[in-house]
Write a structure and sequence with these properties.
One of its GO terms (molecular function) is histone deacetylase activity, hydrolytic mechanism. By secondary structure, this protein is an alpha/beta fold. It has twelve helices and seven strands. It has a single domain, classed as Arginase, Chain A, CATH 3.40.800.20. Helices cover about 40% and strands about 10% of the residues.
């Protein structure tokens, strides 16, 4: 995701141990992992994802009704039944503390701080209880969806959270419409609850994923492939040094060149790292005409991109979590729906049966 404008540090060995023990206990006691019946498909969404607060959400270019429209397209097109969608739980404060600090979460109790993060200045004038209800609650539901997606992916081979991908948020800092670090949380939970020890992040949002890069800056268990436009937000040069495989694509790159670069990047990633889980941040702000991404990839190019990543995972038999992340045109929802329909046609996912495992 992006801007409209241009692990907690602990000192002392025993303190580090105490922090890890506390983190582990919080993960093990969390309710975010729950058993999903076979009648459901591993596609996660809640109507609570969609953000609407007095029309102020329209002051940011992100389409905050995108998530619901994706599902409506899939249902209207007859490829998904509404009662087969998985609804996640809201991430609690204890859940969020697995990555975030008390001080960071406390800062979100100030409306002005949330307004800065989501880049909608008038939100600073609203009572915080309203900001919590209308802005942060939808985000926390999406965080719950991203965390649950890893469990479902391990069980079913793939899972899609029709939301999430808040890759600009790290443990101590939000920004670019990202208030919680759902990718970092998802991976921390997978380490502890799924006994996963190696995770690959494939971040194909047009913007650099500086949040998860900061959080896993010195963690060799996480391999980051980030393909982004270096000429746009967040200009986080420090976080760039933590990217294992950096693929910089300049403004105006077109579909064929983009997909060629992606093919090369996936080939290198496949030779370099052997993950047990892939977290795929599938932003649609690479689309031609997106006001923030500034790339020129066609809708068919986005469909091909997603297919390439899912094929990469399937050929290696690696569970994959897909997050929808950024996308700043109304057309994004239709493109995402079309991409999921294509994945289903190519038998890379199955939106009608939950019995197929990659």
């Amino acid at each position: 995701m992006a801007s409209a404008s241009s692990s907690t540090a602990v000192s002392g060995g025993s303190s580090t141990v105490d922090l890890e023990t506390l983190r582990r206990n919080r993960v093990l006691s969390s309710k975010l992992y729950f058993d999903v019946p076979p009648s459901k498909v591993p596609l996660i969404y809640s109507s609570s994802y969609d953000i609407a607060f007095l029309g102020m959400e329209k002051l940011h270019p992100f389409d905050s009704s995108k998530w619901g429209r994706i599902c409506r397209f899939l249902i209207t097109d007859g490829v998904l039944e509404k009662n087969r969608i998985v609804e996640p739980l809201e991430a609690s404060k204890d859940d969020l503390l697995v990555v975030h600090s008390e001080s960071y979460l406390s800062s979100l109790k100030r409306s002005v701080q949330v307004a800065i993060i989501i880049e909608v200045p008038p939100v600073a004038l609203l009572p915080n209880f309203l900001v919590q209800q209308k802005v942060l609650y939808p985000f926390r539901k999406q965080v719950g969806g991203t965390i649950l997606a890893a469990k479902l992916a391990k069980e079913r081979g793939w899972a899609i959270n029709v939301g999430g991908g808040f890759h600009h948020c790290s443990a101590e800092k939000g920004g670019g419409f990202c208030a919680y670090a759902d990718i970092s949380l998802c991976i921390r939970y997978a380490f502890i609850r799924l006994n996963i020890s190696r995770v690959m992040i494939i971040d194909l949002d047009a913007h650099q994923g500086n949040g998860h890069e900061t959080d896993f800056s010195h963690d060799s268990r996480v391999y980051i492939l980030d393909m982004y436009n270096p000429e746009i937000y967040p200009y986080d040069f420090g976080a760039r040094s933590y990217i294992d495989q950096k693929v910089e694509v300049g403004s105006g790159i077109k579909t064929d060149e983009y997909l060629t670069q992606l093919d090369k990047a996936l080939e290198v990633a496949g030779r370099t790292f052997d993950p047990e889980l892939i977290v795929y941040n599938a932003g649609t702000d690479i689309l031609d005409g997106d006001p923030l991404g500034k790339l020129k990839v066609s809708p068919d190019g986005v469909v091909s991109r997603d297919e390439k990543v899912f094929k990469f995972a399937k050929e290696k038999n690696i569970p994959l979590v897909m997050l929808t992340s950024g996308g700043y045109m109304r057309s994004s929802a239709r493109v995402i729906a079309d991409s999921l329909i294509n994945l289903s046609k190519k038998c890379l996912i199955d939106l009608n049966s939950s019995s197929v495992k990659m």
